[in-house]
């Protein structure tokens, strides 16, 4: 039985990798990313990878950490980050370091948080990221409100920041409600990545992405990325039944 997400992905030229569990999803994602990075290393002698934070990627990170890739020739960075130091529990960099310590120690790490102020940090990151363009592999997630990276619905300059020709490569995102200030890569980096993945976990997130196929990016920013090249990796939550796509 096909799921609505699988049908929508196929109709838009995307490939849905439908896993039976989060563990299988982590394995499929890691194999896919490692193959893409190995191809970049073979073709260009170096590779770049940008990942996202949250709870879902931890198992995927641990799979990467077990790999035999030549990580010394890989540059690793984040799609977005809360404006907190690495030792803060909310830090995406801290999650990456804890989940894949071997990779973190060997790869060339480009942090987003620099400890100056969000705008100065964004300018510094933009300078560092420019030499990596286009990124070889990008891994995105999605929030219940349809945000991806730290590109939030109806945010300031959102449509400008989603464009592939956005004027800044990294943008400061102000605090809002209970949300900390953040830093995010913009469409000028994210839209130009050679290989793009979207990790989707659970029925709620599956429904969010399905809605986004027919939504405006201003309302659901992930909609701006639902076009080739994009591979979606879906898994139900542990307690949910699996419906093959």
UniProtKB/TrEMBL annotation:
It comes from the Bacteria. Pathway: Carbohydrate degradation; pentose phosphate pathway; D-ribulose 5-phosphate from D-glucose 6-phosphate (oxidative stage): step 2/3. Keywords: Hydrolase. InterPro entries: 6-phosphogluconolactonase_DevB, 6PGL, Glc/Gal-6P_isomerase, NagB/RpiA_transferase-like. SUPFAM superfamilies: NagB/RpiA/CoA transferase-like. The keyword Hydrolase applies. Belongs to the glucosamine/galactosamine-6-phosphate isomerase family. 6-phosphogluconolactonase subfamily. This is 6-phosphogluconolactonase. It comes from Halopseudomonas xinjiangensis.
């Amino acid at each position: 039985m096909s799921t609505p997400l699988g049908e929508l992905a196929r109709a838009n030229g995307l490939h849905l990798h439908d896993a039976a569990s989060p563990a299988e999803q982590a394995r499929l994602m890691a194999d896919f990313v490692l193959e893409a990075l190995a191809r970049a290393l073979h073709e260009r002698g170096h590779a770049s990878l940008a990942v996202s934070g949250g709870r879902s990627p931890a198992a995927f990170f641990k799979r990467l950490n077990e790999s035999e890739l030549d990580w010394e020739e890989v540059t690793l960075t984040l799609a977005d980050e809360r404006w907190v130091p690495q030792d803060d529990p909310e830090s995406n960099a801290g999650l990456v370091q804890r989940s894949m310590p071997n990779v973190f120690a060997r790869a060339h790490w480009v942090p987003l948080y620099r400890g100056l102020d969000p705008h100065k940090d964004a300018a510094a990151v933009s300078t560092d990221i420019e030499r990596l363009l286009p990124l070889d592999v990008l891994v995105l997630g999605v929030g219940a409100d349809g945000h991806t990276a730290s590109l939030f619905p109806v945010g300031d300059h959102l449509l400008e920041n989603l464009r592939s020709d956005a004027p800044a490569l990294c943008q400061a995102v102000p605090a809002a409600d209970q949300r900390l200030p953040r830093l995010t890569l913009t469409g000028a980096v994210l839209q130009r990545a050679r290989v793009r993945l979207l990790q989707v976990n659970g029925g709620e997130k599956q429904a969010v992405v399905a809605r986004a196929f027919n939504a405006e990016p201003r309302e659901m920013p992930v909609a701006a990325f639902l076009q080739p090249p994009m591979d979606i990796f879906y898994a139900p939550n542990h307690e949910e039944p699996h419906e093959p796509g």
